[in-house]
Design goal:
Layout: E1 5-9, H1 20-28, E2 33-36, H2 47-59, E3 65-70, H3 74-80, E4 87-93, H4 104-108, E5 117-118, H5 124-128, H6 134-142, E6 147-148, H7 150-153, E7 166-171, H8 179-186, E8 191-195, H9 201-204, H10 206-216
Parallel strand pairs: 1-2, 1-3, 3-4, 4-7, 7-8
Antiparallel strand pairs: 5-6
């Protein structure tokens, strides 16, 4: 059986580095995992530039691919996968899964951004890494980058989840995105699973997360 590749798309402030442990676990399960760098983390690029980076990564794969978006990453994944021919499944990991025509700022009720780039939160460990080993969490915080304000205000132009099977992974102990909000968005998905983790299971529970992704992306 030809197993799809898995394309991992990071969230705001992060980079492809955050997937390193999960990629290793997926490789141990015999899966090919790929990553992409979103330009909005570290530069003023917005949602549409991020979506283009994901589209480029998808078209470079000449076989079926399952696309996993974490947190903000679910937003450009939604746009990038609309009309994609060989995307077999979308996975939203504590991620934004919203309707076309909306922005994160609108959905979340955020006030206007005052700067072009938004710095990582001062309480990033508590926000993102509540159940992560403290040393691992501190190393992660040191690698966070400012996030483009435009990524929060640009509006979605299309939604791949309208035609592609999707799975939502709710993180039940999330301090960044309330589980109740995740469950509300998960109602749009074809299937829903729950993880007993905080916002970043790729760092706190990469083994169990890899097993779950392996199972739900096999077809």
């Amino acid at each position: 059986m030809l197993l799809p590749d898995i394309l991992l798309v990071h969230g705001a402030f992060h980079g492809a580095w955050c997937w390193e442990s999960l990629v290793a676990e997926l490789n141990r399960l015999g899966r090919t995992a790929r990553t992409v760098e979103l330009p909005s983390a570290g530069t003023p690029a917005g949602l549409h530039e991020d979506a283009e980076a994901i589209r480029h990564a998808i078209t470079a794969i000449d076989r079926p691919v399952a696309v996993v978006g974490h947190s903000y990453g679910g937003f450009p994944v939604t746009e990038a996968t609309a009309g994609a021919a060989h995307v077999s499944r979308l996975v939203y990991l504590a991620a934004w899964m919203v309707e076309p025509g909306t922005s994160i700022a609108e959905v979340a009720g955020l006030p206007p951004f005052e700067t072009e780039m938004v710095p990582p939160p001062l309480d990033a460990v508590a926000q993102f890494y509540g159940d992560v080993d403290p040393e691992v969490a501190e190393r992660a915080v040191a690698r966070l980058r400012p996030q483009s304000a435009r990524s929060g205000t640009d509006r979605l132009r299309a939604a791949g989840w309208l035609t592609i099977p999707s799975t939502y992974l709710v993180c039940d102990n999330d301090k960044t995105m309330p589980p109740s909000l995740q469950e509300e968005m998960a109602a749009r998905a074809s299937a829903v699973h729950h993880l007993p983790t905080s916002h970043s299971p790729f760092l706190s529970a990469p083994g169990p997360l890899a097993v779950l992704l392996h199972q739900i992306t096999k077809v």
